[in-house]
Specification:
Number of domains: 1
Radius of gyration: 13 Å
CATH class: Mainly Alpha
Order of helices and strands: HEEHH
Distance between the termini: 32 Å
CATH topology: Helix Hairpins
Helix content: over 70%
Shape: globular
Strand content: under 5%
């Protein structure tokens, strides 16, 4: 897979996360790029996604592994986007 393809997948996932988590929810307001979501929550989200990577590895599911790695990268990008 080419780097541009990877970045495109991450960008698509960022857009999906942004839409899914738009607005107020029990952990704040917005996705992991939001200043209204605590870093403890962002850390939990990233850790949860890493756990799903581990599960895909254990299951030897390459398709799911790729999907989960994209989600890990997108959460990390979102967190970076929100840093001051």
């Amino acid at each position: 897979m080419m780097r541009d393809d990877v970045y495109h997948l991450i960008d698509q996932e960022r857009k999906r996360q942004s839409v899914k988590w738009a607005g107020k929810h029990e952990w704040g307001w917005g996705d992991c790029s939001s200043h209204d979501v605590a870093e403890e929550v962002k850390s939990a989200v990233l850790t949860e996604e890493c756990g799903e990577v581990a599960r895909a590895v254990l299951d030897r599911n390459k398709t799911e592994l790729r999907n989960e790695l994209v989600q890990v990268a997108a959460v990390a990008v979102a967190w970076l986007e929100g840093m001051r």
